[in-house]
Design brief:
single chain; 180 residues; mainly alpha
Length: 180
């Protein structure tokens, strides 16, 4: 969107974790404020004097977030509002440090556990699972020893599915059906 720029490439204006997005990782998107996609929330930010995060706006949360958790696009929206709340509570610098750690975990998973079919799954898992759980799972993965790539990927995916079950998290993108 013309005139809309961002400094933070990890957390979007609206609370999406750009640093964990498969579109950004694949080079198909420049991230919030660096791409060419029209965005109603970016337009609103410009109208509000260029707030860096929606929570800085006096009208937040507004109607633009109605139904935001119901469906996903190419990235999960399930934690969008929770992530904005967390960033506001601990500060952007601390939030970015957590996201950088998640980004390193994701890079390790993609380099060592992705058999070519798990990129989106790992992006969603790292985005939605708690960092403490991801750390523990990564320790278990590293201690598991050498397995063939396909088995490694399945072992990691199974571990994340169990973590998701414990956290009552659904590890898949929720697409809107064309019938609605």
């Amino acid at each position: 969107m013309k005139g809309f720029k961002r400094k933070n490439g990890l957390l979007s204006l609206c609370g999406l974790n750009c640093g964990l997005c498969p579109m950004l990782l694949g080079g198909h998107c420049g991230g919030c404020g660096n791409g060419n996609q029209p965005c109603a929330i970016a337009r609103c930010s410009l109208e509000q004097g260029g707030v860096e995060y929606c929570y800085e706006c006096g009208r937040y949360p507004c109607g633009k977030y109605d139904g935001s958790r119901e469906f996903d696009s190419f990235i999960t929206h399930q934690r969008q509002l929770d992530d904005l709340k967390r960033a506001k509570e601990i500060g952007i610098d601390a939030y970015n440090r957590e996201q950088m750690e998640k980004k390193r975990i994701l890079a390790h998973l993609l380099a060592n556990y992705n058999d070519g079919r798990r990129k989106n799954f790992f992006c969603v898992a790292v985005n939605l699972l708690e960092l403490s759980e991801l750390r523990a799972d990564m320790e278990r993965l590293n201690a598991a020893g050498e397995l063939p790539l396909k088995e490694r990927g399945e072992y990691a995916a199974d571990m994340f599915r169990k973590a998701a079950e414990r956290q009552n998290v659904q590890l898949k993108l929720r697409k809107k059906s064309g019938r609605e």
